[in-house]
Amino acid sequence: MKPLEGLVVLDMTRVLAGPFASMMFADLGAEVIKIERPEGGDDTRAYPPFQKGESAYFMSLNRGKRSVTLNLKHPRGKEILKELAKKSDILIENFKPGTMDKLGLGYEDLRKVNPRLIYAASSGFGQTGPYSSRPAYDLIIQGMGGMMSVTGPDEHTPTKVGSSVADIFAGLFTAIGILSAVNARNRTGRGQLVDVAMLDCMVAVLENAVARYLVSGEIPHPIGNRHPSIAPFTTLATSDGAMNIAVGNGDIWKRMCAVLGMEEYVNDPRFADNPSRVEHFQALKEIIEDRTTKKTSDHWLAEFEKVNVPSGPINDIAHLVHDPQVLARKMIVDVVHPVAGAMKIPGVPVKFSDTPSEVKEPAPILGQHTEGVLTSFLGLTPEEFEALKKDGVV
User: Fold this and answer.
1) Is 167 a catalytic residue?
2) Alpha carbon distance 268, 85 (integer Å)
3) What is the pTM of this model?
């Protein structure tokens, strides 16, 4: 048994935040039925790069799901959606607020056919508030949510995080919210609406930046790769590139100094404690790099590892996907797609001792499971299914 085996998820999401949430449910064993437009399907099916005509972007976010095409503008399509919702535990959508209501398929509509349904709505700004009707993408939310104001080399170069973190965090919080609602339903027998906003998620994960402002009134600005409250906690130049080091307490500081031959600085008043090291960071960095630039990153990382000084390389993606730790944890796995063929994709990051999680199947081709789901899940006959195809419902 997998952790979420037995749960049925009706996945009405597209692009990134919603599909990331529903993908986690598929990885953890839930049956995820992805509803897509008959023409084109999920927007990301058209996003490059492609392998044999299939989008790698789409395939990376929709593994293990079953694709059902359904025309929700057709009355019979709406009826089928309600029939599916009646038999599902969870529905996830990430349309602009109000879209599902206009279709007659919003939370208030579907709770009438299934009071146990957990209806999760992930959007840019949430179901309430003055911005709720605005469209949003990751870049917009990273900017509005403060992330770009604290990321980058300096305050003149606002920079987005390289990954779409506004979308990803929204997906993670959506999954957490749904699982919390499942636990509540175990007690009450009732489903509920789970409302997750990308902007809210950005506020929640800014951690020390918000804390510093609310306590001190200081507006945080980008400071490159150094930490605002800990030093040295930064990127250091070496003879062949750069590496990261994180000196989180006084004991690590002493061990780092021993490796670098900096014993005379251990009790230097400028560096004797963490607040002093933060205050005199630039001078400290120059002293350290005068030593680290004499030898390679590999040399210093090996020396730091011997004495348990937290440090690490700055991997590009090519190095990352071949890293022995990443491979040992099965974070790069092989799947065989029915069209794209053999390919490698990221694995499942949550490991369980008793209820394993795994990538069970590749992403589906558009409409691959429509007939199978509607005939087995809803009991439609082959003749009824053919009529739906003829009428443009599926």
Assistant:
1) yes
2) 67
3) 0.92
